[in-house]
Amino acid sequence: MRTDAVLAGLDPEQRTAVTAPAGPVCILAGAGTGKTRAITHRIAYRTLTGEVSPRHVLAVTFTARAAAEMRARLGALGATGVQARTFHAAALRQVRYFAPRLLEGRQMPELLESKARMVGLAAARAGVRADRTGARDLASEIEWAKSSLVEPSEYPVAATKALREPPHEPAKVAEVFAAYETIKRRQGVIDFEDMLRAAVWGIEEHADVAEEIRNQYRHFVVDEYQDVNPLQQRLLDAWLGGRDDLTVVGDASQTIYSFTGATSAYLIDFPRQRRDAVVVRLVRDYRSTPQVVGLANAVIRQARGSEARLRLELVGQRPSGPEPELKIFPDEAGEATAVARRCRELIATGIAASEIAILFRTNAQSETYEEALTEAEVPYVVRGAERFFERPEIRQAMIALRAAVRSTPGETPLVPAVVEALAATGWSREQPPAGGAARERWEALAALVALAEEYAKAPALVPIGVAGAVQRDVSLAAFNDELARRAEQQHAPTVEGVTLASLHSAKGLEWDAVFLVGLSDGTLPTTYAKTPDQLEEERRLLYVGVTRARQWLWLSYGQARSAGGRPRRPCRFLPQLERNSPAERAGERSRKPDRRRPQVSSCRVCGATLLAGADRKLGRCPSCPSDLDEDLLERFQTWRKTTAEELKVPAYVVFTDATLVAMAERRPSTPAELLAIAGIGPRKLSQYGQQVFALVGGADPDEVSSGASAKNFGN
């Protein structure tokens, strides 16, 4: 392939990145701006011009999927022979190759796939009680420490300085850490962090190994550079050996893995550390419509902190699309039902289910949407987590709930019975535990309690056959039957379906339609985000979610977790929703009406709060089904044209197009019904009410008198 073909179709900024001379290059690439295209074309351009040899290039990224995509693109561009691997895969290959030399003829030790079992043994040795979930949280702390180049003795100070929330006292975690390292060495195994450290040690301490590796790899490209941790950076520095032929690409606004040890500091400091670096900003967004891009810019524009210094203002390149839909529902169940219905409608229009995603802050939120999609007969797949009823803690809880039926007095109310049964599994309604896995387990079990509360509040009487109505059974046994029914429905296999995913697991992916749900303070940002840096990372999570959407974007939250529950505020990072927060609406009810503030109304179809003026006028969401009477609309238009000509005013002065559509949908026949349409007040009623009612009743426009002689309906 010729170089002009490699350069064809690149925008000016991409072309600058591709043709930049050898040396340090920093590509700041916003979401959807073609970063993978830029770096693969840069590699191909340099190899095709003869500037570099393909076998001397090492491109590293963070997922096997991204590495495979990079290799495929390079092959299509004619740059065969380039190594594209994850940090771990590249290090593993080198350690295996040099192990006999580094280990006096021995092969590389066995690689530990999971730390949990060995961490459990270490916890017992340190006198720390840790079940499977607790072991996972301790393993996460050890991974953070090792990735941050922190030794066991240094952990307490480092964890405190980093504002970590470990599952146990830092000193105890340090004891477990030290015991884990001892057990691991005695069993002759290494973990993934050890492997990276071994690769660093092999280069830094063995000149012959360093020379061989540096002769092999002379030009480096690092994707997602905002996600590197100190250990990975140490390995990259070892590979470079003081050389500067390094291209990095990243977006500080997508830094969302700080809890694992990743830091955007290396990306932020790149131009300062390498004074001669070429810095290129990619801001043309080819993924999303201008409407989605505009909202993404609005979300990240308010960002603060070091990452905000590299904030990019994206410029949408796609044709115009629908405005993002901002919706507020009375509770989570109503939100999930509306989302499921909208998914079904989109699929009916021809959008593939696999091109739709529902994204949330925590995996524990998925159950409500799994249930709603099942009820709506919409197929779905859960990404990055097990389905709710397949999770170990939920299976254990269901066993405990069934066992509790025999020991629970029949008069015990459902919710206390469920709480008491879950206590047998170690769950408590008090403050959730520290640690990611333990907290997620707690939230999943809390979702069962919320489900019990919802089940207990359902209507007390339900019709049964032809015999009338009977008292609804809200016993623990009946609730167990309900859980079994839900679990059975949601075990049906699905090949293609709507994606359910957390915001973290959605990074790097994109869909035609994206639903961002549960956008309430306390969920996003999570209540556990307390420091300014933690809150800013939550803002970036929302930004990542918004930028996953190509065309349709829905943002919503429930004012309460369940009907009658404690009211919640909308996500603080969405200024469009802040104007209609529950607190403000409560305040508005106690104040005199302010004509400058838009009145809040609800969709008559789905119940969502309507935010846009045109939506309030119609009385429904744009996406909800319309019951428009087209004949009536035509009569309204004919009458308006005649009336405007008689009064010598523009047609919109009589009624706007949106008002005509609203009247043709709602067909008002009384003054109260006409006044209920947003934008119609006593004056319009007085002027045109008689004619509107006559037209609704079937009158011909030519037979309806003009507004100039209208009877006053305002008295």
UniProtKB/TrEMBL annotation:
It is an enzyme of class 5 (isomerase). Its EC number is 5.6.2.4. It comes from the Bacteria. Residues 561-598 are annotated as: Disordered. Pfam families: HRDC, UvrD-helicase, UvrD_C. Residues 581-591 have a biased composition (Basic and acidic residues). It catalyses: ATP + H2O = ADP + phosphate + H(+); Couples ATP hydrolysis with the unwinding of duplex DNA by translocating in the 3'-5' direction. GO terms for molecular function: helicase activity. Residues 290-551 form the UvrD-like helicase C-terminal domain. ATP binds at residues 29-36. Belongs to the helicase family. UvrD subfamily. This is DNA 3'-5' helicase. It comes from Paractinoplanes rhizophilus. The lineage of its organism: Bacteria, Bacillati, Actinomycetota, Actinomycetes, Micromonosporales.
